[in-house]
From TrEMBL:
Taxonomic classification: Bacteria, Pseudomonadati, Pseudomonadota, Gammaproteobacteria, Cellvibrionales
Segments crossing the lipid bilayer: 21-40
InterPro entries: Peptidase_M15A_C, Zn_M74/Hedgehog-like
This protein's name: Peptidase M15A C-terminal domain-containing protein
Organism of origin: Microbulbifer hydrolyticus
Domain Peptidase M15A C-terminal residue range list: 147-207
Gene3D superfamilies noted in UniProt: 3.30.1380.10
Keywords: Membrane, Transmembrane, Transmembrane helix
Pfam families attached to this UniProt entry: Peptidase_M15_3
Length: 244
């Protein structure tokens, strides 16, 4: 039997088709609106970047691991010294790193941070292994100022005359000084004195006249102490005019 659609069925189909068209149009409008909003945001973001570019912050490199093959101790012209690698290990203990960074900043603002490697100023001496003391120590902040003039004498007079130097002994704790047989009034305990050797090749006979000439010329002005030990090791401080 053939089924014929009545006019009512035709009306229903037309109504459904209209609703479908309305939904499609509404969906298209919604999508267009969303796309418009996103486009506006992108344009605004791009404009902000053009007007105020984002500052590039260089990533901080991770510290490289210590090379186990690098020695912690070496000889400098016959003198035993702890290396920069040994100092890095020392900084990893307690709060040494933060304390040392503060000291480095102090030296920098006083324009004496590049006279010698700052870590060398922390060397207590060359006999730490024999007396059972740490190879390095960091002076308390109240002692820092006394080193400034000593480094200036080094920078302005000693190094121009004899070339770069290695610091064998800088700051010393009272414990280290006592065990090492240092003087009770040692300027090392005030972070004022440095024991050094020249990097260049010198005989004692060549070195002594140069150092004594500097002491005669500027010693009083800088309250400079000059001590000359055996070989080519010598001492400089700015905490008392004298010579030995």
């Amino acid at each position: 039997m053939d089924i014929k659609e009545t006019p009512d069925h035709e009306f229903i189909d037309i109504h459904i088709e209209r609703r479908r068209v309305i939904w499609i149009v509404a969906l298209v409008l919604i999508c267009s609106l969303v796309l418009l909003v996103l486009t506006v945001e992108k344009v605004r973001e791009l404009a902000e970047r053009i007007v105020s570019p984002v500052e590039y912050i260089e990533p901080v490199p991770m510290p490289e691991p210590l090379d186990p093959d690098v020695p912690l101790i070496y000889k400098i012209k016959g003198y035993t010294a702890a290396t920069a690698i040994a100092f890095e290990k020392f900084l990893d203990e307690d709060d040494h790193r933060a304390h040392f960074e503060k000291l480095e900043h102090f030296l920098k603002i006083n324009e004496v941070d590049d006279v010698v490697p700052p870590f060398e100023l922390m060397r207590q001496g060359t006999d730490w292994q024999k007396i059972g003391e740490p190879p390095f120590a960091i002076p308390p902040e109240e002692n820092w100022e006394t080193m400034v003039d000593t480094l200036k004498v080094l920078r302005d007079y000693i190094i121009p005359a004899i070339g770069p130097v290695h610091v064998l002994s800088g700051w010393r704790t009272s414990s280290y000084n006592a065990k090492a047989g240092g003087a009770r009034t040692s300027k090392h305990m005030h972070f004022c004195g440095l024991d050094m050797i020249p990097e260049d090749e010198y005989t004692r006979k060549q070195l002594l006249p140069k150092l004594r000439r500097i002491h005669r010329k500027v010693g009083r002005r800088w309250n400079m102490g000059l001590g000359i030990y055996s070989g080519i090791r010598f001492h400089v401080d700015t905490c008392g005019y004298r010579r030995w």
